[in-house]
Amino acid sequence: MEENQNNLIAENSTSDEHFNGASSLSSLTLFLDRVGEVILSLNSIGLSWEPADSQNDDKTSCIRRENHAESTALIEFSDVYAAELADWGSVRQLTKCCFMHQDSEMYLFVVHAMQRSKTKESLWNLVEYTFGHRDQLVCQTLVKKIKLYLAKQIGRPKSLLVFVNPKSGKGNGQNIWRTVAPIFSRAKVRAQVTVTERAGHAFDLVSSMTNRQLISYDGIVAVGGDGLFNEILNGLLTSRFKTKFPPVPPDFMASPGDDPSASVLDPREINAGTQDGECSTAVEDDVEFSFPHEWFRFGLIPAGSTDAIVICTTGARDPITSALHIVLGKRICLDIAQVVKWKATMNSDIEPSVHYTASFVGYGFYGDVITESEKYRWMGPKRYDFAGTKVFLRHRSYEAEISYLDINSKKSDPDSNDDNLNGGRKSCQGLKRKSEKIICRANCEVCNTPFSGKMKSKWLRSRGRFLSVGAAVISCRNERAPDGLVADAHLADGLLHLILIRNCSHALYLWHLTNLAKKGGTPLDFKFVEHYKTPAFAFTSLGKEGVWNLDGEILRAHKLSAQVFRGLISLFANGPEV
């Protein structure tokens, strides 16, 4: 440890060692807390170390270095979010021949990074590496060099707008933010925090912001549940995303001034999501905000009742994991569905209302559950189980007609046929043939496959009595449904998963719900269940006006249509890793 700090100077290093293809720019001996004396190497990829006496270790020693995970390591800067000086302090060292520690006083610095859990790879843990050296200049120089490398990491946020819902889930929103706030502070991310005071507060603030105000941030973070996330999403899109209404079949109801075309374009190719290829860019005071946006992203720190979006995009329902995804600048594209509530008749004075969702919209059972649960808000998240049980026992079905765009009729469900128009009498019980599933993961090949342009499509129709009608943008995994509503739904493939549950017996419906609630279940492999992948659908109630569940919000609609925009927004996330 008596080496002069000149050994640290990167440009004069004579080391020819490499790790991950990068030359080692600096190498010196210092102390690592709970390990002892190590040789640290630093280069543009990251830092690595090994015990200083590793080559001379006595293999019969009672301390086997390889038994200590931190004694030898390689940490890439892509996993490091901060480095800071810690002044003078103690470093605990392992003795050579016993398990006791001996302390040494010296100047310290700390490297903050993430580490994947050994039991669940999608779960990221905080890890700190405390190094020590008796020369303060050595510590200062190392920290400076590490910060320079961190500054070169692409896509990391510098300023974020944060909304905290204090009442979401179990009411832990503010406590969760206080837990993760130090991560943002260490990473030098400025956070403008707003604690919401009422429903719609975040929507009002985001929708009223100017483009200039909005792009002064690198993104918006929601500390809450799926409801808060979608409130912010709608605040952003409703006032800025300019597009036509979803396509509808010719006999549905002509949308005002719109041609019900069945052609669907990829918004990533046209930078819009419009039907005619025009660019969707909100221009305000000469400041543009386009969709998809080049760098603006959404973040979500789970504090809700189900947190399906964060589970699907990070693989874990964990605030620390989500905070690390954000400060490390991870990026993943996400499909967004536009949902339009239409007026019931051509003579109605009610104008169509537009909504957006990143997860799910459901009718029948799903709408009844959310309506019933409103009566029991005092129960907290348990109200959904209680309301679900009551609605299940009622076993109410609804007569409706659903039209959807079939983009590949040759590969459509083998059990779907013209009998669907006659009430599906041939498909009301038993199981149907299973199909192969490709699960969405980090670096997903399906989501990363370029869109080929216009898709040939035609309208198909399903009519009858349904227990539920649902459209999932993502798999909607949660603790009650570990595989989600649709296990093989993807984050950015440009398709909705339309799920129609035809009227069936109590026992069969319970069988379906039981499969939905277990890992590895097959809830879609029943003949009374219809599952279609489609870019757009239209719904008409053949009875009274129905109730839809739009991400936990009640939407009453006699007629409704929806379309999906591929990769319309980006999230601070990496995708599930397992």
Automatic annotation (TrEMBL):
It holds the Pfam family DAGK_cat. One of its GO terms (molecular function) is ceramide kinase activity. Residues 155-343 form the DAGKc domain. InterPro entries: ATP-NAD_kinase_N, CERK_C, Diacylglycerol_kinase_cat_dom, Lipid_Phosphate_FormReg, NAD/diacylglycerol_kinase_sf. GO terms for biological process: ceramide metabolic process. One of its GO terms (cellular component) is membrane. This is DAGKc domain-containing protein. It comes from Beta vulgaris subsp. vulgaris.
